[in-house]
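As a point of orientation, let us examine one representative protein, giving the amino acid sequence and backbone structure tokens.
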Amino acid sequence: MAQFLKTQASGILACDFFTVETAFLKTLYVLFFIEIGTRRVHVTVSTTNPDSSFVTQQARNLVMSLAEAGTQIGFFLIRDRDAKFSRSFDDVFVSEGIRVIRTPIRAPNANAFAERWIETLRAECLDWLLILGPRHLDRILRIYVQHYNRRRPHRGLELRVPESLDPVEEADGVSAIERRDLLGGLVHEYTRAA
């Protein structure tokens, strides 16, 4: 049963918006996509006005970047019923053979992976920083998402990271460890010393 669920999850994308208040009291919106099977996250640029043309262009950008990387896009896209997601947004995915599934009204648990990622992002990063503007937020998100996808172990993936699903090696003994600080010391990455 677990293997069946893992194979099904590999073909599902989820997307959602989250908002960030800047130090100057402006609201920024960020659209992100998460691959359910690998927990790999794709974040778009922030904007103050997420209209239909913005979300459609971000969908096109995602589809093109996944195609260039040779990543299979999936079979389903889960999204909520937000008015920002227009028909043209859905059409980008439908043209790639992806079925768009809208969650029920007022049912955040129906898009649980996306909601959980927002909670993780806030707890580990955004709640600890004052965001000055869109460029500042985009830089922080780029650094954090790179850490999340390449270095942060995930319990649901047997302590593997999304972009390298190799098995975790058992250590023979304790060797020297190097620490690298990101975002001014907010996030730490650890590696074995050479």
The first strand starts at residue 12 and ends at 21. Residues 52-69 form the longest helix (18 residues). The chain has one domain: 9-164+171-192. DSSP finds five helices and seven strands in the chain.
